[in-house]
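Hmm, what's this shape?
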Amino acid sequence: MSSSHLYFIAPFRTLPSSPSLPNLHRIPLLVSRSSHPLTHKALVFSTGIRGVSGSGRYCWRTMAEKGKGKVEVFDSEEDLSVSLGKYTADLADKFSKEKGSFTVVLSGGSLIKSLRKLVEPPYVDAVDWSTWHVFWVDERVVPKDHDDSNYKLAFDGFLSKIPVLPGNVYAINDALSAEGAADDYETCLKHLVKSNVISVSAATGFPKFDLMLLGMGPDGHVASLFPGHPLVKENEKWVTFIKDSPKPPPERITFTFPVINSSAHIALVVCGAGKAAPVNAALGNGQNSDMLPVQMVSPEGELDWFLDKDAASKL
């Protein structure tokens, strides 16, 4: 790989095609040369910044240090949802062609809203939904028709609008206790591993999902793994339960970090200024002695952050 010099010029909306623009404050940057033409739509700098502009919208991307993944910051949640839809559809197509199935794990919160582009053209008609197998990274132990249910949230906002096969949607048994529901869900996963629906990580022996779509709470929690809770250290079980969640409802089941981090791809989708502090803790340069759960997300595969500009405001 050879390198050449370009310049970053603020304010950052577009990138110049020439380094010889006069009378502008210029910062030299090293750009890796590839077989693709260097344009303002496809530039990755050694500083980590990529610019993307067009159609009145833009985002900037940082290629964060190893272990933190790729970070994309969007001007609006609408732009984020457009990109997330394409990202998810592309991965679904890739895995469906490679192995005939696509295992995707959902979370609750605003994540389902951010997937809304998938239920619109062109994706709703173009995606091969028959290959999808849908799971939840965590679930509240409530009836499926309860407003707190992650299943209900996903069904109302996403699953009811796509032709996914009902037998390929794996919700918890809401008739069981928290402990019973966790054990039952883990048994379900083990059966699907044996039947080759879910892959297994050669490195860890834990189930390896194709894509895990995670949100994050204002306290930095992911799934139902909360700051300071003993469950963040669970390293043997695939699925466990919590009865004292600091966020209601108190009883939940959750994947453990060994399962989360065995994923082939993880997308962390975070919007809103209220989540800027934990985003900065995870992606900024500051040192924090108390590691947040979101900082423990480190898949053996690829990690992609999808942030709106408010969530990224402290970076």
User: Anything to note?
Assistant: The chain is about 20% helix and 25% strand. Confidence is low (pLDDT under 50) at residues 1-58, 62-66. The longest helix spans residues 77-99.
